[in-house]
Amino acid sequence: MKTKLKAMTLVELICVIAIVAVLITIGVMGMKGVRRFKAERQIHTITGELSDLRKRAMITRAHTNMIFENDRYMIQYDEIEKTVPYEDELIFVESNTAQGGNSISFSPSGRPSNSGTITFRVGKTAFNVIVAPVNGRIRMERADEES
Prior knowledge:
With 147 residues, the protein is α+β, with helices and mostly antiparallel strands. It is 35% helix and 37% strand. The model has no long low-confidence stretch (mean pLDDT 88).
């Protein structure tokens, strides 16, 4: 008597491998979108923190400062210094401020002592965080998309 061994055929094995590969690809592409979203969200957070620093300067009647570095930014007010690392997809490109340097600071009246534009890149898209020189208005805008 012959007994038949049960096993998968080559075609079934190839189909299973192809399905697993498609699922892995979908998962990796989805994670890339999540990382990009987190990086863009951090730019909005930086804009909000600059606005909070301006208000804190007016309330406490003291100078406040935000310093941008290649891998993090620092918030300084009173005797407090807070350091926040950038998200993986967020790249600090340049700082174009009135007095030079990589910082935005506010005087006790809420006016920017060092106003200007901070540029970030997420993927191929550039974002500018702009602090107006006279009134201290803070806004974020999408700058461009490269092909």
